[in-house]
Amino acid sequence: MPCSCEGAETQQIDDLTRNLNQATRAACDLRTILRRGGTEEDLAPETRAWIAQHDDWDRRRIAQEKASGERKKARAAALDKLNLDERRILGL
Hints:
Oligomer: single chain
Helix content: over 70%
Low-confidence stretches: none
Distance between the termini: 61 Å
């Protein structure tokens, strides 16, 4: 009879991954706010190194999305949700 904890381990990994993704999004948002305020240099060297790594990862992800057409599809899907007046207001 197989161990019944296999599903629990998978769920724990999924939960940890979800939590890690949420923490990364929060850190990225805070980085953006700090940059706008010009206070990013006040951070610890380890934090600035993480930010540099994250920026590099973002650049590569965006390039890959552009190459595969994902960004174009996402933009089109977002624009499709707007009505004519909303498009005019945004100058689209």
